[in-house]
Amino acid sequence: MTASPDLGTVQLASPDLLRSTFRRHAAGVAVITACGDSGPVGFTATSLTSVSAEPPIVSFGIGTGASSWPAIAETDHIGVHILGEHQSELAATFARSGADRFGAPTAWREGPEGVPVLHGVLAWLVCRITGRVPAGDHRIVLAEVVLGDHSGTGRPLLYHQGRFNGLRD
After folding, report:
1. How many CB atoms lie within 10 A of CB 83?
2. Residue 169 lies in a domain
3. Cα(163)–Cα(115) distance, rounded to whole angstroms?
4. Residue 126 lies in a domain
């Protein structure tokens, strides 16, 4: 039998309640990339979701104040990269505001549809954006998979309690 929740600690909805709750939720780590007017852009995302298998569609959230948003708002194609546990520094670089995300030591190349493709990831996809849905201060981006490669090896990188972690058995 499980104990019932302590209703004495209930809080009204707030950004802090949402952040505190989702720190307890382990999430896979991805980097989303695109080609912008002034070069490649990208950001770390823990909101990546498989939406549909037929056709293959994924989604992710992005804040409208994010430095990558203008490129994501205008581009037709994006890259989705699933990071391995050995890539916590890469995840941190793409999460850090003002970082030179595509400078050394980030290894990447221009891929199909001009999308920046990161090296050494567990898997990557190139996707065609099919929708951008308003959701508060974010947009939920829907993107149909065009092609990809899932042949990387290793274990996934996770985000939990405000830190990047490896998967434990």
Report:
1. 27
2. no
3. 28
4. yes
Please give the structure tokens belonging to residue 61. 């959230």
The per-residue pLDDT for 44 is 98
Give the pair of three-digit tokens for residue 167: 């998967």
Nearest CA among 56, 23, 54 for reference residue 123:
56
Tell me the residue range of the domain where 65 lies: 28-160
16 within a domain of the structure (yes/no): no
Q: What is the CATH number of the domain that holds 151?
A: 2.30.110.10
End-to-end CA distance of the chain: 26
Helix/strand/coil for 2 = coil
**C-alpha span between 45 and 12 (Å, rounded):** 26
**What total number of domains does the chain contain?**
1
In the chain, the amino acid numbered 115 is: V
Domain membership flag for residue 121: yes
CA triplet 126, 132, 136: central angle to 5 degrees? 130
Do 46 and 95 contact (CB within 8 A), yes or no? Answer: no
The residue assigned the tokens 């434990």 is 168
Pair 72, 32: CB distance under 8 Å: yes
What is the pTM (predicted TM-score) of this model?
Answer: 0.92
Render pLDDT for 71-100 as a digit per residue (tens, 0 to 9): 999 999 999 999 999 999 999 999 999 999
